Structure formats: C-alpha cells, structure tokens
Amino acid sequence: MSAPRLLAALASGVLFGFGLALSGMMDPRKVLGFLDLAGAWDPSLAFVLAGAVAVSALGYALKARMARPVLAPRFEVPANTRLDARLLGGAALFGIGWGLAGLCPGPALAGLVLGLPEIALFVAAMLVGMLLHRLTTERLLAAVGAGR
C-alpha cells in the first residue's frame, strides 16, 4: 500500500474513532438507552445515524460523478443485492449482540484505548466468534465440495 493510501486510511480511522467517541457510541449505556424504545429511550444517537446516512449518501453521489477513486484503481462497492437467509441471519445476530452488549465492532475496537476490561472482553469474544465462523464456514464449504 502506498504512503498516501496509508495516510488516508490512518486519517479516516482517526476521524471515525473521534466521531465514535464524540457521539457516545463507545458507551454501551448510551447505546442501550437508544435501543430501549419501551423504556427510558435516549434519542440522541438518531442524529449519529442520520449523519452516517448523509455521509454515505454523499459518498455514493460523489462516486457516481467519478471515473475512479483518487487513491485506488477502482471502487469497491458490494455487488450482491439479494436478501438471503445468510444475510438476514447475520443481521439478526448482529442486532441481538448489539442489543445485549451495547457494543458493535467499530466502537468496541475504538473503545480499546479506554482500557476498560468489559470492552477488552467483548473484543476477545468477537475475535473468537470470527475465528469460529471462519473454521465452520471452511468446513461446511469443504464438506459441500467433497459431496459433489
């Protein structure tokens, strides 16, 4: 990776982490308050969500006007538009985990700098889950391939 791309990635990561900290997304209590629609709902993170949607929409609008990105040979945009069981199941598991812990991967990784044991435990469990997913997926794919 070239130096300009590394610097752009670093700047993007720092900006993202700063935004997560500033918005309260690294505080599980704030996130759980936002997700608690039936209780003491805290609507403040709706502004974070609206800001994220606006930035994403702006990015897609800019992409439509550009032949290629400034620091890459091509745009990397997901091509799959199908809603299948795997996507819906993954989204459901993500939502359940987010609702139980008040953390999702981005804020948890950024939150490691806080040195809180519960965030470190969440990240460790997340990494174990990712490893288990990779191992089981590889075995399932190998079994399906061997059965043909």
If you had to describe this structure to a student in words, what would you say it looks like?
Helix content is 70%, strand content 0%. By secondary structure, the protein is an all-alpha fold. It has one domain (3-146). The longest helix has 30 residues, at 117-146. The N and C termini lie far apart (39 Å). Keywords: Membrane, Transmembrane, Transmembrane helix. It holds the Pfam family DUF6691. The chain crosses the membrane at residues 45-62, 83-103, 109-132.
Arithmetic mean pLDDT: 90
Helicity level: over 70%
In one word, what is the shape? globular
Classify the beta-strand content into a percent band: under 5%
Largest sheet: none
Distance between the termini: 39 Å
List key phrases describing it.
148 residues, mainly alpha, 6 helices, 70% helix
Spell out the blueprint of helices and strands.
Elements: H1 3-23, H2 28-35, H3 45-65, H4 85-101, H5 105-111, H6 117-146
Helix pairs in contact: 2-4, 5-6
